[in-house]
Design a protein that fits this description.
β3 and β4 (148-153) form a beta hairpin. α2 (60-85) packs parallel to α9, α5 (202-211) runs antiparallel to α9 and α6 (241-249) runs antiparallel to α7. Helix content is 42%, strand content 20%. It contains 11 helices and 15 strands. The chain has helices at residues 2-15, 60-85, 120-126, 170-190, 202-211, 241-249, 257-275, 278-281, 284-297, 306-323, 348-359; strands spanning 87-89, 105-112, 136-145, 148-153, 159-161, 167-169, 196-200, 215-219, 223-225, 230-232, 235-239, 298-301, 325-328, 331-337, 341-346. The longest helix is centred in the first third of the chain and has 26 residues, at 60-85.
Length: 371
């Protein structure tokens, strides 16, 4: 009889598993207790019931999300900070008879001889002279679009009409009326609408070159020009900021300014290639100084922004990589006048052919490409 009662009690206990707590009997449920603790039975809770354990929430999604937000804020904030550092001037203004917009994108890139930011010691070391104000000896048209990318030098001694000043050398337009008159003169002489303007002085040029760790240039022949403070051996080498400034300024050649503009195109292309290289962009010790130097020393039009300069840099990189065209406006002859002194003239037929290609965003014909 006792056996029967015992059997009935056990059966009743087993059937009650869905209706009441059976954790008090470890023999009834072999999986009772804290399974995470290796099957130990825990009677620490009230009435011998194991306390409820909170599931630990994973924090890494929140941490990752917070890091992404911070990164976005840093990038956006950094962009607007750098953009605000650009020097701006109202350059691309309308005037009566202005050339209408043309296909593709056109930049007028100007190197000025502004000594702003250079100490007297720097001016002496770099052999820049001590003249005040700013003039220009370097002017290039950069074009990119469906017709390809091209970089065209506009020699400073080019004899062209200048509004309100008769005909004179191209760089005289800058001296007479600054960037506004220079842009107007270039547009009238070429028939090409200028969309963007960028200008950099001596100090900015040196700073940008040094920020990227120098630029690799292959020098064709020995150069010794005390006026530019330059002495280089022929061969491939890395030029620092001071040497680079002398390289793009020197006229110690038989072809004087015409060979200088070749060096300017060569160097600017190599500079942009170095600036856009992974070794510069992913290296904060190069990219940060480059960004700070470039944005504080480039003068652009009021409507130009940092992303415009980045596009310009990539276009210049394409030119230096061999996928674009570099040339000088075809030269027709020379002359002189009392107002301008010695000057050069453009070959009307070939230069028209060149600029017509730019205006129509087409490839430049091979027969008008010169050094």
């Amino acid at each position: 009889m006792a056996r029967s009662r015992d059997h009935s009690a056990r059966a009743e206990h087993q059937h009650a598993a869905y209706g009441r707590d059976t954790h008090g009997d470890p023999y009834d449920d072999p999986y009772a207790g804290d399974q995470l603790a290796g099957g130990r039975f825990d009677e620490g809770g009230p009435g011998g019931v194991a306390p409820h354990r909170r599931r630990r929430r994973r924090r890494w999604p929140r941490v990752l999300g917070a890091l992404v937000v911070v990164l976005v804020l840093v990038i956006v904030g950094g962009y607007f900070y750098l953009d605000s550092r650009l020097k701006r001037e109202s350059v691309l203004v309308d005037y009566p008879g202005r050339v209408a917009d043309t296909p593709g994108t056109n930049w007028l890139i100007v190197g000025s001889d502004s000594r702003a930011g250079l100490s007297k010691a720097d001016q002496k070391r770099l052999r820049t002279g001590f003249a005040a104000g700013r003039r220009t000896d370097s002017m290039m048209l950069l074009h990119y679009g469906s017709g390809g990318t091209s970089l065209i030098s506009l020699p400073r001694d080019s004899y062209v009409p200048i509004a309100g000043h008769g005909s004179n050398k191209l760089n005289a337009a800058f001296a007479f009326g600054g960037p506004k008159l220079l842009v107007q003169t270039v547009e009238k002489a070429t028939g090409v609408h200028v969309d963007h303007y960028a200008e950099i002085g001596f100090n900015g040029f040196v700073g940008v070159v040094d920020a990227v760790g120098g630029v690799d240039i292959c020098v064709k022949e020995n150069i010794n020009d005390p006026k530019a403070g330059l002495k280089l051996k022929a061969g491939c080498q890395t030029l620092d900021g001071g040497q680079a400034l002398g390289y793009v300024r020197t006229r110690a050649f038989a072809r004087a300014d015409l060979e200088r503009v070749e060096h300017q195109r060569q160097f600017f292309g190599a500079l942009m290639k170095k600036a856009a290289s992974p070794g510069t962009l992913i290296n904060p010790f190069r990219s940060v100084p480059l960004a700070l130097n470039a944005t504080s020393n480039f003068l652009v039009d009021d409507d130009d922004h940092l992303y415009d300069l980045v596009r310009m840099m990539w276009a210049m990189k394409n030119v230096s990589g061999g996928s674009g065209v570099t040339t000088t406006v075809p030269i027709g002859g020379t002359g002189s006048s009392a107002a301008a002194g010695s000057y050069i003239t453009w070959d009307r037929s070939k230069s028209s052919k060149l600029f017509d290609a730019l205006k129509q965003d087409q490839e430049i014909p091979q027969d008008v490409i010169t050094k």
